[in-house]
Design a protein that fits this description.
The protein has 365 residues and is mainly alpha-helical. The protein is built from 15 helices and no strands. The chain has one domain (2-155, 175-360): MFS general substrate transporter like domains (Growth Hormone, Chain: A, Up-down Bundle), CATH 1.20.1250.
Amino acid sequence: MQAEAVAGPGKEGALALVLGLGAAASLVANPVFGALCDRARSRFGGRVPWVAAGFAGGAAGLVLLAGARRWWPVLGWCVVQAALNAAHAAPSATVPDQVPVRQRGTAAGWSGLALIVGVAIDTRLAHLGDAAAPGYLGCAAFLLLAGLPFVLSRPRARPVAPTRSEWRSFLAGFWIDPRRHPDSGWAWVTRFLVDLGTAIALPYLYFLADVVHVAGSKTAVTIATGVNLAAVLVASLVSGIASDRLGRRRAFVCGGALLMACAAVLMACWLTWSGVLVAAVLLGLGFDTCSAVDFALLTQVLPAAADRARDLGVLNIASSLPQVLAPVVAAALVTGPGGYAALCGVPAVVGAVGAVLVYRIRSVR
């Protein structure tokens, strides 16, 4: 809404700029804050202060966005992305800190349920009133409440005290050598391609309004998101628990990614409201099957226990970098000869390649 108000016909380019710069902030913030919380010590535990500060900073960024004019959304969204990636790094590392390998798919499934609840609530909050400000303020208030369970539970990692030489090599630690850790490298490539395919098809609202010609596109986004989340609800725990019981991760990641590719093809070929809803179901089933089990897989290819949050942050660059690239690619596809058909077709190909490459990982079945 803000991009359209500021840029008018150039809304896709304006949205690409804001989202791309915000994603660049998250790309740096996740591994850096992860490395810091690996080494932090406090009476509250090493991870908790970063979560508390991240949620508070994220809420402040949303308040800044509520009053944004002209290009202020760029700054506000960068603050939100950087702060929430600080908050995200610590809970992600808590899973390998505390959960046995044989239960990590289930833990990832529960995280998927948390995603459903969060998105369902915030999708509704984001549409409070006819302007953007009430939605931002509602999301900021909810964000502060959402951080309390983790902060109050005060989960503790077992940080390794850094030596002087470790601090000297702080920056060097952000490179995971794919020759020494090939499975980490292939896991990074797989996640990057799958997430790039998903992120390219981001401008949902513009697609519904400009191509499908749905009246009341804001309401349509809410409905489509609800249908998508219902499918995610089905896939979340089922895929995580099944991968634990079968002792297999790669088949679920591959199957979920291919299902998302099918949803993208369907969106390109079936340009109706019914097609959007069917694609939303397939996308929900594929996304959570892939993402939940992929997270469990990532925790099993981490190079070192002492640097879990940092290494997860480095691997999560595979999710952040597509957010930087995708808005630029998406804007070029939408405004080019292929239009929205290309916007759906290209992600299908990219995601399918990522699905196949997961079988290059050898240490996890």
